[in-house]
Specification:
binds flavin mononucleotide, 7-stranded antiparallel beta sheet, Arc Repressor Mutant, subunit A, Pnp Oxidase, Chain A, alpha+beta, 331 residues, 10 helices
């Protein structure tokens, strides 16, 4: 065959192709003998609206290729932001990829996965050779979609979508000459976003006569309790709160915390403390729901992801709050 293109360095060619951001799909099918196959594929694309058609391509060395070639029916699942593990599972050859997965009823015998951003049930319309891949063009016979934010793939890694709203400025006059910092200073953005969010809880905190320290301690114990005084201090030291000034003792005296006798002293929420934090967290959830509603699901998911990255990057070594305590026998 004639050389159609210069001999590219495959790694570099792949890296260049990776500049094209895509979603992530899993394409499934079922053989005549009932064997279910599925592959992670980001080569998916829309083709035609009328008739509704889509395409994707599969490597000629994929184990599932014979099934996709033989069958007429396959389902494309646009994965949601929560389905990264599923994407990795279907990108590995060999194991039973469907073990333990709930399936929905499909128009064909092709497996229909759940929890996706969108699904297209297709019938093969055309098949083409495409170098070391086979291209499948399918007519969409059924589809559905959800509001779950889609998972993206770009520059060789998973990503999240956040719509670009043009240059975002919190104020009309964004840059003042001579100012020591601009509104793009991350510290300013973190701080302002934090205080504006917490502002929505102030009413509830004041009603319940709760200080910021009370709020930190109560919300910590609502996740994990009982905790020793030193553990509480270690968890919230990063906020700058000083517990040495008798803050915990005051919370015991006001009936928010219960002391467990012994050394060290362990503290847990009293019924009044539980009730108080329940109300504050309900208010926080309402503020969050309003924020998500204003920003959109996509942006909120992307923001969570970025905030987690920023928290990891600046972590002073806090004790892990969401991990189960290590109960392994160290004796
Ligand atoms: C994000 C991502 C996208 C992928 N896209 C494709 C693709 O479009 N076509 C393909 O043949 N393989 C693609 N793969 C690799 C296949 O998922 C992988 O080779 C899979 O193991 C094939 O399954 P099988 O050998 O059981 O058929 C992709 C992998 C990942 C992680």
């Amino acid at each position: 065959m004639d050389q159609l293109a210069p001999p590219f360095d495959p790694k570099d060619f792949r890296r260049a192709l990776g500049m094209f951001a895509t979603g992530v799909t899993i394409v499934t099918a079922c053989s005549e003998d009932g064997t279910q196959v599925g592959v992670t594929a980001n080569s998916f694309n829309s083709v035609s609206l009328e008739p509704p058609m889509v395409l994707w391509s599969l490597a000629n060395n994929a184990r599932s290729l014979p099934v996709f070639i033989a069958t007429k029916h396959w389902n494309v699942h646009i994965l949601s932001n929560e389905q990264e593990a599923l994407s990795n599972r279907f990108a590995r050859s060999g194991e039973d990829k469907f073990a333990g997965l709930p399936l929905d009823k499909s128009v064909s015998n092709a497996p229909l996965l759940t929890g996706c951003s969108a699904r297209f049930q297709c019938r093969t319309a055309f098949q083409y050779e495409g170098g070391d891949h086979t291209i499948f063009v399918g007519e969409v016979v059924q589809y559905d979609s959800s509001t779950l934010p889609p998972l993206l793939y770009v520059t060789g890694g998973y990503a999240l979508a956040a719509r670009k709203a043009g240059p975002v400025s919190t104020e009309a006059q964004a840059n003042i000459e001579g100012a020591l910092y601009s509104e793009n200073l991350l510290g300013y953005l973190f701080g302002r976003a934090h205080f504006q969010f917490v502002h929505g809880l102030r009413g509830t905190l004041q009603q319940r006569k709760l200080s910021d320290t009370d709020f930190f301690v109560l919300s910590l114990l609502s996740v994990r309790q009982p905790l020793a005084t030193e553990e509480i201090a270690a968890h919230i030291a990063y906020t700058g709160v000083d517990l040495a000034s008798g803050a915990l003792q005051s919370m015991v005296q006001r009936g928010l915390l219960l002391e467990q006798p012994g050394t060290p002293t362990f503290l847990r929420l009293s019924p009044a403390g539980s009730d108080a934090i329940l109300h504050v967290l309900a208010a926080a959830k309402a503020v969050e729901a309003d924020l998500v509603n204003r920003m959109g699901e996509l942006e909120s998911a992307a923001l969570r992801n970025l905030l987690k990255q920023a928290i990891l990057a600046t972590d002073p070594g806090l004790p892990k709050l969401w991990q189960a305590p290590d109960t392994s026998d160290t004796a």
